Amino acid sequence: MSIGRLWRTVRHLTAEQWVYLFVCRGRRVVMRRLPGFSHWRIGRVADCLPMPDISTRTAAAIGDTVLQLQTAVHGETFEAAPQGKFTLLSRDYDFGSIDGISWRGEFHEGNNPLRRMNLAYMGYAVPLLAGGDPASLQAVRKILSSLVAQNAWSEPGVFRDVWNTYTASHRMINLLSGLALYRKTGGPVDADAEREVLEHARFCAAFIRANLERDLQFNHLMKNYVALSAFAAMCGEVPQELRMLERAVPKSISQNILADGGHAERCPMYHILSLLDVQVLAASGLYAGTWQPMLNDTVGRMTAALQAMTLADGEIALMNDSWLGEAPRADSVLPVTARQPVIELPLTGYVALSEGGDSVVFDCGPCGPDDNPGHAHADFLSIEATVQGKRFLVDTGVPTYTAGDARNISRSATAHNGPRLDRKEPIEFWKSFRVGRRGYAGLLDLSGFGDAAPLQAAGWQSGYIHLGANLRRYIALWPGRGLLVVDLWQGRTDDAATRFLIPGGWGVNDTGDFVSAGTKLNVRPLVGSMDGPAVSSHWYRFGVEEAAYRIDIRPETIDPGARCATLFVWDASFEFPNGKALQSLFDQLNTATPAVANID
User: Is residue 458 domain-shared with residue 574, that is, in the same domain?
Assistant: First the structure.
């Protein structure tokens, strides 16, 4: 353990996080050492809470929103849950029967409990119960009994996975939503089965209230509050033990959602998940006079902001810890409206350029909130792009959450489509979610660039300032014709490099062009030299490796600094105007000023 690295990590924590770092850990120690007493104490609190009513319109409205999420996550695989078969983060697990479920298994995630957590979320129960089949209710009841039986609080590690507060929050809202939809679709009442499930949900509510994740905060704490709000909404009136929600929820919304509508953790996947959470809060109907206007405004801002993280293929860009299949498709959440050609989120740090099937998403913002950047990747100034509706520049994605080489590489600058210094990192990553020293990024003012291209954006990043280098990037999109990427290194130039990752769904013909379904794409290094394409990999879905091509661009050295320019062309007649115009772009990029105040 490096004392310096530890200090660079924890110095950004707020006073509240420092306090609850010790409070929350202390509570977990007590629960581990005194499991019987702790379980009894939580049970006493649960007994004071009312039993939720899942037959109301409010319960059904919450269930409808949760169903949208769980249908996207589980597809048709939920149907096999009564046979003890589950698909968890793209891996299939067949336990033979419900009796054979092994809740404390390793699940191919090593030192990270993510798949155990996903099994214990019980998201599959939502679409299963939504069918109104009494056999499904009995299956869910039996799965829940298995979970309780195998995960006594005396079990080592149980508070990291099955009885993690975040897991309990998911499980509670999924069970309540599933039962509400079961009733909505006319499932016959089974008082004993429903009571057993509702009593567990009530116990989860008491557990969550006693173990709020105020040390981590952000999306974890917000999920705690969303789950408790859903529970309160089904109680007729807010229980005394949960009246803190009136103040806590607006504070959490303010922490998670920035003024431009983006999510503070800068992960497009978590943006959609949080948007659904806000919709659950809006459906709860709690504190209508104060919450409802704020929630409606937040939903509107987040929906508008999502467009800046969405490509023309209808899916999100996979920046930071984002992957496909963990949230509904972006185009299923967005309204069907005309898309603006340029959408900027100056605080969140995303820009989308788009027309027709051609689009680019440009990451030019902070890696995440300083007090919890756990889902950050070193994707400063990285881009993803589509041509004619097909993705042709892809992010590496997320192969794992387990600490080790694969996690480290996937978070590194080398794994993203941005300029970098080879073998140097703009962010100091350690373990699975720790961040020490970190750089920043932002937009550059485009006023000096004139009408160099129909659609354009530019940004800066300071991740290498400690090594004496500043990096800048300019991107220009000519819809239907081509994309220009211009990179500039100011100061230190050794090891300057950039790369682009193209998915394996594109082929390479005899002339070196990339081809896909009638579309031909040519890559031209206007300044600098190109190596590749070389065989590589990427992960659209968590843990699912797919083939890709990697192109490396080596810039030319100038005094002081380095530069390169890469042109992607899909209209064979398109040519960048001339060398003089390109030199003008380099000059403008060199002297451009930040569009917002520098963050450092």
Answer: yes
